[in-house]
Specification:
Strand content: 15-25%
Bound molecules: pyridoxal-5'-phosphate
Shape: globular
Length: about 475
């Protein structure tokens, strides 16, 4: 399998060649040159397979430069019941991403696909755990080191740290805004004692952290000399790892591979739902892919109107589903490339326009009318909707859901179709956003046993000013 850039002006590369990098040299994102097609017979033969073996069947379609035995081993290490037993006690934990039916509404079964039983209780573990093993494997093969520099406002940073802790050849320098994360989230990150993990609490906000990462990454000499890399959501390895659980969700929800299902995906950067798009392109019988946004509704606006308008930092709201608070959807370019007929020139021009003029408008374009064949629907949820949905799901089904999943359920309910099961992706456990759960339900969020004493554990964190040179100095003095 070869990978091409969405901007059409970079050499094609292999899976391992793009694994450690970010953007393609022309500023685009990597996509496979074709989507492998999965037949009904293949799907049926995958029913009941252990998750790691299912993952092998899918990943081996996209990666031909890791020998079979090695890839199987990496997947078996990544997707074990032991790694995914941090969430609620779960009779179906062996499924890794168990499916829980809530009930039937308007003649449609609604279920939650649990993606948040990993070490940090959010769906980002699903991809990041695999990336940790893949990075270690390929660095060892190449005899290289990698120093990951990242900025986080919560979920991404902790998922990256838990994936990379103790991995040979990898160090993580994670910037977070001091005092701006929830107590649970900062305790999760700062309580890690592994010598290859460095938490830097920046005196500033998340944007300051992100600006520092950008400034360091733009210093090419520094970056090359110190082997600096990132693990942001545009990494192809993350997208393809997410493809696996859509298959698992489908296989758990259906008895035969002629049945259709719909998925609703709480969305920010379009990373998770981009994997859904790819799965649909591979031939999985998906009726609709429903993009659920919060008040930062860049994506809902696009699917509704054909206008894509990135928001200014001042227009980006801080909401109670904070992991979806984005100003532009960094993975969206992958889908745009596909619906613009995989034309790199056109895609490049559209995203130059996003950079220069803040967006594009295809509302009058024939292409927008043709979007229907990709199965997308969308909707938006507000703080009020979120609280109401958390309350309603708790009362009706006795299930506590987090704020992001609540946005998903709210929007899913607007798109139910009789006879087509609706699978909502559960992206985090409620304890991660306990302040809002307390407001919604008047009682504390359920806390998995492994996390009961997380806030009283000793913390390991370095305070630092919002200053690029100080961050560079910190990195160079902690490299050897
Ligand atoms: C990251 C995240 C999202 C958004 O996912 P995207 O891939 O950015 O669309 C939703 N919910 C939670 C809990 C997250 O951590």
């Amino acid at each position: 399998m070869r990978y091409q850039s969405t901007r059409g002006n970079s050499p094609q590369q292999s899976f391992l060649e793009i694994l450690l990098g970010g953007l393609a040299p022309d500023g685009g994102l990597y996509l496979p040159t074709h989507y492998p097609q999965v037949t009904k017979a293949q799907l049926d033969s995958w029913r009941g397979m252990p998750y790691a073996d299912l993952a092998y069947e899918i990943l081996s379609l996209y990666c031909d430069d890791i020998p079979e035995a090695d890839l199987r081993l990496l997947l078996r290490k990544s997707y074990t019941e032991l790694v995914y037993c941090n969430g609620r006690s779960d009779d179906n934990a062996k499924d890794i991403t168990p499916l829980h039916w809530l009930g039937e509404e308007d003649g449609t079964r609604i279920g939650l696909l649990s993606l948040s039983n990993g070490p940090t209780l959010a769906f980002k573990d699903m991809a990041m755990q695999l990336l940790g093993h893949l990075f270690e494997y390929t660095l060892k093969k190449k005899g290289q080191q990698l120093n990951i520099l990242g900025a986080t406002s919560g979920d991404t940073g902790s998922a990256a740290e838990y994936a990379m802790r103790g991995k040979e050849g990898v160090k993580v320098f994670m910037l977070s805004p001091r005092g701006k994360m929830s107590a649970f989230q900062s305790a999760q990150m700062y309580s890690l004692q592994d010598p290859n993990i460095f938490n830097l609490a920046v005196a500033g906000v998340f944007d300051d952290c992100q600006d520092i990462v950008k400034a360091v990454s733009n210093d090419r000499a520094f970056k090359a000399k110190n082997q600096i890399g990132t693990v942001n959501s545009i990494n192809w390895g993350r997208v393809v790892a997410q493809v696996i659980y859509y298959f698992q969700g489908y296989l758990l929800a259906t008895k035969s591979s002629s049945e259709k299902v719909s998925f609703t995906v709480p969305s920010g950067n379009f990373g998770n739902v981009c994997a859904g798009h790819i799965v649909r392109m591979m031939g999985l019988p998906i009726e609709h892919l429903i993009v659920a946004t919060n008040e930062n509704d860049v994506l809902h606006e696009f699917f509704n109107t054909g206008v894509y308008r990135a928001r200014k930092p001042t227009e980006t709201l801080h909401t109670s589903s904070p992991s979806m608070d984005i100003s532009k959807a960094s993975n969206f370019e992958r889908f745009v490339f596909d619906f613009m007929g995989q034309d790199g020139k056109v895609t490049a021009a559209m995203f130059r326009q996003v950079e220069e003029a803040g967006g594009f408008d295809i509302s009058k374009d024939a292409v927008f009318k043709g979007l229907g064949k990709y199965g997308f629907r969308s909707g938006r949820s507000s703080h009020k909707n979120r609280l109401e949905t958390i309350r309603d799901i708790d009362q009706r089904y006795g299930v506590m859901i987090d704020t992001h999943t609540a946005d998903g359920v709210k929007v899913a309910r607007e798109h139910l179709q009789a006879g087509v099961p609706m699978i909502v992706l559960e992206t985090a456990l409620p304890i991660k956003f306990e302040e809002t759960i307390e407001v919604a339900l008047g009682r504390p969020a359920e806390c998995p046993p492994a996390f009961k004493d997380i806030k009283s554990k000793p913390q390991r964190v370095d305070n630092i000013d919002a200053n690029v040179e100080q961050v560079k100095d910190f990195i160079t003095t902690h490299l050897s």
